[in-house]
UniProtKB/TrEMBL annotation:
Swiss-Prot/TrEMBL keywords: Kinase, Transferase
InterPro entries documented for this protein: AGP_Transferase (IPR051678), Aminoglycoside_PTrfase (IPR002575), Kinase-like_dom_sf (IPR011009)
Keyword Cytoplasm assigned: no
Molecular functions per Gene Ontology: kinase activity
Region span, Disordered: 1-52
Gene3D superfamilies: 3.90.1200.10
Location of the Aminoglycoside phosphotransferase domain: 64-314
Top-level taxonomic group: Bacteria
Keyword Kinase on entry: yes
Protein name as it appears in the record: Serine kinase
Amino acid sequence: MAPHRPEQAPAPLDPASPAMGELLRRSWRAGTLMLPSAPAPSPRTPSAPTAAQSGSLQVALAGVGERFAAWRVIPPGGAALIVRIPHVAPDELHQDLAHEIAALSLLPSGVGPDPVAVHDDPATSPLGRPFVVTTAIPGEVAAPTAWSAAHLRAHAAHLARLHAVSAPGRGPVSTGPDPWSAIAPGPQHLLPEVEGELRAAQVAHGAAIAEHRLAPLLEAALEVVAATEAQFAQLDGFVLCHGDLCATNILWDGADPAGGPPAVQYIDFEWAQGDDPARDLAILGGSVHGGPWYVPLTDEQVSAFVDAYVRARGELGEVPDSVADTASLRDRMRAWTAYERSAMLVHVASRAATSAAHRRVLPALRGTLAVTLGVDV
């Protein structure tokens, strides 16, 4: 008699597959998609919609990013929702999805989506994977080359609204009565994080780093961060940061009703946390660019963008030294650019062997980073 072999659980579905779309439909019909609801009651956490047992439910893949697949779910007679499902292992995410929902609950109205629900445990998720549910945001992504001075001004003013939410330091947003309970008091630092990330990158992607000769760029990026570490240790004025505010996470919806600048909102807050405001300013673009993520900007355009942001912060309240001192702000932006673009470069290089899109982006991103860091590659 053959030995009994226990049945293995089926492998989780591809988050971007038609089968996942069908599973979303079934989960909605069963009423399991919206539970458990967002954990911390707040004005930004609406009641979860009730699953309708009849009527036409629309489910469509909205897009696939670097780590998430996004599905648009439109209930019968209801407002559209977005279900975001990671297509990477949970330990490859920056933080648990509950932190994203907690961050969304702090957003000023109109800055981004409303949190609706989170399933952060794959074992109990009706989709077999963790996921978040938010309200849908109207608008389209603007290509990096399509950004105008009006886009920069509108983004600067909108970012100032997000950054009106203060934080005591660098760290995740928590559920519960104190959203900043996980942030340790005292001086804040960036250099140890960057050192750890680069060590981890070498372990995980050493072959790609060697193949594309990235080591000199990573070493130069670390030197830029190290040169500003003293400024980080003395920093005040931490805020709720988006953490990944590149062009693909900024949606534009025509112009505002008064005929003013383009209407803008932000999406995909999986990197959101308390942090240095320079982080969100730096990630948009500048001299280091490539792919759909980064807007090519001259130094004069970056200066105008920063000035517009500082003015907008002043219109909303007192401006902390971390923002008012624009020389320090620009120094820290350069450090964040070195850190974030070098990390993205490793990510792109690691996917270049299997992804034509990443192969196309790699030369531009590597080349512009090398020029900015003064590295001969």
